[in-house]
Amino acid sequence: MTIQSKQPSDIRSAVPPVERPSAKAHVIRTDAEAIAVAEKLAAEFAKDASRRDRERLWPTEELDAFSQSGLWSINVPKAYGGPELSYVTLSKVITIISAADPSLGQIPQNHLGVVAAIRTVSDEAQKKLLFAEVLSGTRFGNAFSEFGSKRAADFETKFVDAGDHVVVHGQKFYSSGALLAHLVPIVALDDEGRAWYAIADRGAPGLTVIDDWSSFGQKTTLSGTVLLDNVKVPKTHLVPGYKGYDRPTADGAIFQIIQAAVDLGIAKAAIDETVDFVRTKSRAWIDSGVDHAWQDPYTIQAIGDLRLRANAAEAVLEKAGLAVDRAVADPNEKTVAEAQIAVAESKILTTEIAINATNKLFELAGTRSTLAEHNLDRHWRNARTHTLHDPVRWKYAILGNYYLNDVNPPFHAWS
After folding, report:
1. pTM of the predicted model over 0.70
2. What are the tens digits of pLDDT across the range 173-206?
3. Of 102, 105, 211, 216, which one has the fewest beta carbons inside 10 Å?
4. Residues 155, 149: contact at Cβ < 8 Å?
5. Where is this region: Disordered (predicted)?
């Protein structure tokens, strides 16, 4: 696809909102259709992925195609006109897209998580209203995390009640998707310290999105700073997100499983790049006694190891998707803990294979793979950046405490 937009010349300038789609989005009906649509889109997204990374070009046209394809509404319940597909399928979709371009794979993460939260915590009127928005093609961004707080779950952004609406004031960072979103869910606290999603219009007065995301990886996730200067949000769009964590629900596991799927996609792309480079560009080592790099026994062993570990990570991710499906269908202390544990296991394995595969790429492909013309370092940069979400050293602790001491994981969006 062609690339039509790039960052403003002044990185501190406010980015204007985008228009909503003129046509309704497609609604996908089956798991097989979702996979087929994802594979077709991924083939297009992969074409300019390296250029977008190199030049930090916004994937404007690609994002429109993605959200209009129906893949952004696949977890809307059938009772409200949605497909309500399996989280196994949703994870596969994100993996497929992320293998082509992990920035595009990450952008809908919070959108899909908020859709799941609406199912869990909203009343009927709000579900009908917001699910209709999603099915029409509306994209949710996010304004969740804050830059200067002591911990990720510490929020200073608050809202005050103003009758039929609330007024939000604060500042956010790491706001993936916010630049080109249509609606921006804002995590804000009420006067009791409870966290809500205040879903503001992207063009609401006082809501400013600044293009200042400067990470060396995941460069085009359309993230940045969100300034909230007395932003009005109608109460129809005020979602009680805290209710998803005051009792056992799958909400946290859903946010997490999408992260794991992004990392698996990065790993798969890196392994494919390694195989292609070794077979077409790398030279055999002088002591190997073979004519081609792909005949090197140590390289053969290493590729086998990478594929094995990627396959294991994919199998555990599928297991986690099934556990999430059970927790969504019957949320209770047991099913939710099982989903959290399975997702934590998948997060560990997908993180480790993403880091390992993107590092091994250069070891196996050789020095010429580091040439700037190939831009293969984007895979490592993306893996290193994205896997910093929710550190896996804490996942190991959660697993050990569960299996050794029968302690269930905590309830929050990072577990």
Report:
1. yes
2. 989 999 999 999 999 999 999 999 999 999 999 9
3. 216
4. yes
5. 1-23
